[in-house]
Amino acid sequence: LCRGGLAERLCRLQNRERSAISFWRHQCISDDRIPSDKSGVLVVKILEIFEECTIQVAICQQLEQSPATLSPEDAVISAEEPILKVLFTRETAAHLRSRPQDVIHIYPPWQKLLLQNADVPVIMNTYFSQKVLLSEHSEAREKTYGLTKMLIRKNIISLAQTFRLDDLDDKLQQESSDNQVPCAPQTHNSSDSKQHPLALSAVNDSLLEMVESQGAVGWREVQVRVTIQRVYCLPAREGYRSHTQGNKPLCARPVTNSDPPNVRLCLLVQDAYGMFSEVQLQFLSSTDDIEQYCRRWEGKSCCLAGMKILQRTTRGRALGLFSLIDSLWPPVVPVKVPGQSQDSEMMTTNLPPPSFCYVLTVQSGEIHVEVDEEEQISNLYQPPAVHDLKEILLIDGCNKRCSFWAQVLYRRLQTKHSVPIDQREMLLFVTDSTLQDVAHGIPKVVAVSVTASCVLSMEIIEALSAGSQLVFFKDALWGNGRIICVERTVLLLQKPLLCSAAGADLSELTGPVRLDELDSTTQASSVCALRGTVVGVNESTAFSWPTCSRCGNGKLELCPQDRELLYCNQCSEVVTTPVLKMQLEVFLSCPSRPQSTVKVKVRHEVSIALFVLLTLLLFLQTYEVQSVLGKEVGLLNCYVHSVTSHPNCVALEEIVLL
Amino acid sequence: STLPAVAEELLREIRKAFQETSHVPDDLLLGLKFIFGPSAVPALDLVDQRSVTRLRSPSGRTLYQVLGSSGKLYTCYSSCHFCTCPAFVFSVLQKSESLLCKHILAVYLSQAMGACQELAVSEEQLTNILLAEEEHEG
């Protein structure tokens, strides 16, 4: 044996164990009583015994206390007592000579193993076991049993039952003769793994039937015809990938969903009975265009076959999914009623909204979804109902899905640096003509929160960083006065082919965008416009820095060759005319909110009017606060950082609208 | 049947423990002894000696070869429990006394601890190895 190897170690452990066992056995015999140390002792009553290889498997009931007070005859198996599977080696079993109804004490050290798909825990290393004889009667019985040999059933294990050590895929199901129809997702029999194209049976129209036939003979050939109501992407639960590309700062690059893929394409389908199911398809990479799939597939019919059930979920556990299902309820055409024959005329639209939904997935390696792209749109399809923002703000209720067009004016990324960039939440400030053209009463701009679970395509992300965009928000969630984009919300740049537009077809806004003016109702994390007079300057927060005129890099370095010049290591060139950026906090007095101290963080490039002056002053080092005080500042667009009442202060930051 | 699930779970725990700590705790080793009996120590010895090789052909077919203590090379299949050693024939097939022989157990343990040697072979080579076994038997 290798010195220091695992085999040598096990040898030593085993020798130690063996001497402990023989010592213990010896002690039991000589003492002729149960050892008094009760801690850690497992007390079990044997219900059934069988053998597998040389291991004896005993199905037992764990007893709470020492059964000195109970007699085996009248102990009834109660439902609360936990069931265990206790394994004994051949040698221990021979020593115990157990029979059903025997009570065994198992002394530590024993081991408990919990199996993945089973409820019953397994007890191993049961060397220190002793049978407890409770009464005269049983002692006598014990002696007679010693003469007759009990026949114990032996299970023969199939060679086809191999072990799967990695967690990623499902375990191979065993080929045991007692096959039950599983209700939890299980993979197919190993005999089915020969993949030849199966002759698919006639097309069914019931998802429920397909789901219920899982596990039965021929279930993989069952095809179901459904309508695709929605196409969207879900973030894969297996994890996310963070991206740092070399030394480049994260904010300079658009967020990507590049390899390995971490986004799944999903369909929300509905069958002829009105039942919904979410089908999870393949993983997408960043080059795949979700918009294409939406346009080609939504509203069309497709055939599903050989689906695997991932989950049966209910309204209480999947609020997001059911808010989407509710937006598609009731169905636009009458649906079939189960229980009637296929040709029956019994159809209805008067059904309660669904309370459960199956989540299906494809068997790995096989695509069982065939979409009839050429065919017409199905009657059952309900395109997203488009509203304008004014209508949406007036919607009553919570967790309602809504779709709308809006112009994105400003984007604010969540600034938690601990979170990787593709997991960050965003706040988008949007508007449309219905909000802009109204005198007062409704806000001019609405904040839309985009959570990390809402998958954005690369196209959208790039578009949002580039400039003001008209974006279609499909199936966003409205509730508690906020619009949020969550899982199953899709942001698109182009209009979907079919939309029932309740309002006018929104195009360009007439005139420049206006923000609500700062007033007493202004809240944090919003945008507003303000005007006022400079009453003070926070000199301690003022600083300026040079940036590269080509790429905007704020971290310029001194040139190694000529320390008078600046060097940009992103462009790998000398910067001859750097752009000076400045940041400063000024205190304003605003007539629209006279009681508050208004503190605005401004930047040089943003506000030319005020800062050409300040720049010159600071740059020339002849800065005097006096010369700036009293200057009028006209309509700045700002983002509100915080609003406090004691002290009465509003902290803002000047922004540029897209 | 219970034993295969127990054996599998034990091997998974070994794999997990090894991945997390590069070490197999004593209780898992004793568990191996409990379940696999006399095969446990010889199997671990085969792992210590890095005796297990996984052969892979371009089509993705795999096969294991284990260098036995006597110097003989035994072949173990990937898709079911099978080994060309006499102990397998006797203990597993004939008497159903063991789940595995020490070579198959060594294959699993090597998988769990990343101790498999990897060898890429051509389709023809893989086929020859399989056929050679048949000839040897026949």
UniProtKB/TrEMBL annotation, chain A:
Positions of region (Disordered): 174-196
PANTHER family attached to this UniProt entry: DNA REPAIR-SCAFFOLDING PROTEIN, DNA REPAIR-SCAFFOLDING PROTEIN SPIDR
Domain DUF4503: 270-657
Originating organism: Bombycilla garrulus (Bohemian waxwing)
Taxonomy, superkingdom: Eukaryota
GO BP of this protein: double-strand break repair via homologous recombination; regulation of establishment of protein localization to chromosome
One Pfam family it belongs to: DUF4502
Signal peptide: none
The protein's name in its UniProt record: SPIDR protein
GO cellular component: nuclear chromosome; nucleoplasm
Polar residues biased stretches: 174-192
Lineage per the UniProt record: Eukaryota, Metazoa, Chordata, Craniata, Vertebrata
InterPro entries: DNA_repair-scaffolding, DUF4502, DUF4503
Annotated DUF4502 domain residues: 1-113
From TrEMBL, chain B:
Organism superkingdom: Eukaryota
One GO location term (cellular component): Shu complex
Keywords assigned: Metal-binding, Zinc, Zinc-finger
Keyword Zinc: yes
Record-linked InterPro entries: Znf_SWIM
Pfam families, A to Z: SWIM (PF04434)
BP GO annotations: double-strand break repair via homologous recombination
Membrane-spanning parts: none
GO molecular function: zinc ion binding
Residue span(s) of domain SWIM-type: 74-112
Keyword flag Zinc-finger: yes
PROSITE patterns the UniProt entry points to: ZF_SWIM
Name listed for the protein in its UniProt record: ZSWM7 protein
Source organism: Bombycilla garrulus (Bohemian waxwing)
